[in-house]
Amino acid sequence: QVQLVESGGGLVQYGGSLRLSCAASGSIFNLLMGWYRQAPGKQRELVAFISSGRGTNYADSVKGRFTISRDNVKNTVYLQMNSLKPEDTAVYYCNGIPPFASWGQGTQVTVSS
């Protein structure tokens, strides 16, 4: 089974940027991949996804600020996050759509005001 490992999170100030990475242990080149996030006390939500052909889609809350991309040679999916807001604070996860891998630990993003 393919495993996914997220990295790149951290503490950043309002308006700052972070780049998250999701490394897969196997090939994901033909899979629809997404970044999800879960804030304290809230359900996990899908914030962005990218097709095998690199078509993308975003939740309204992050549109214009986040960019999802992928490197099919490295089996890695990225999430560039700009203009971060405190409401972006959450644990970020990647997975397929629908999810095909066990949920990992994710990577914590904390935005201070």
Fold and architecture overview:
There is one protein chain. With 113 residues, the chain is an all-beta fold. It is built from no helices and ten strands. It has strands at 4-7, 10-13, 18-24, 33-38, 45-50, 56-58, 66-71, 76-81, 90-96, 107-112. The chain has a six-stranded mixed beta sheet with strand order 2-10-9-4-5-6, with no helix packed on it. A four-stranded antiparallel beta sheet has the order 1-3-8-7, with no helix packed on it. Strand 4 (33-38) and strand 5 form a beta hairpin. The mean pLDDT is 96.
How far the N terminus sits from the C terminus, by CA atoms, comes to 40 Å
Runs in which pLDDT lies below 50 for 5 or more consecutive residues are none
Mean pLDDT: 96
Order of helices and strands: EEEEEEEEEE
Specify the biggest β-sheet.
6 strands, mixed
Helix content: under 10%
**Total strand segments:** 10
